[in-house]
Amino acid sequence: MKMEKSNKQVIYDERQQQIQLKSYSLSFWFVMFILYFATFGKTDLLLNIAFWGGLVLNFCYSTLRGVGPFVDPRFGKIAKIGRLAAVPLIFLGMLVFLVAIIMSILEHDSLRESITKCSYLGLSGFWLICMGASIVYRHYLDKKEADK
Q1: Which end of the chain has fewer CB atoms < 10 Å from its terminal CB, N or C?
Q2: What is the model's pLDDT at position 115?
Q3: pTM score, two decimals?
């Protein structure tokens, strides 16, 4: 029995390739900018911001421009999964952010200590909220454009 391969690969056009390349360059320079400041100060927090912030910047920029796989209907199942996963991503981000705030209040005495110790979890929640919101907003813009 011979199985045929599916040739349903999505090919970006020139505009989409330029947007994707711009998102790569923006995230690269964001990471370089943050890593430059990491040499002067608190490196562990800034490394977290540089790594996750660069990924989220890349994801959100391409998603808001309509290039990402979670918003482009040509990707089929992945676009449907993105539409379904956007709102739970926002709620998960809010939950993680609230857990970080509660942990910082319960475990630490001073505000400065709580901000530095629980910032990783709080930033993770913030990144999840940004990613989910970018998917939801892009779907809103697509729907608004289709109605016109």
Answers
A1: N
A2: 67
A3: 0.82
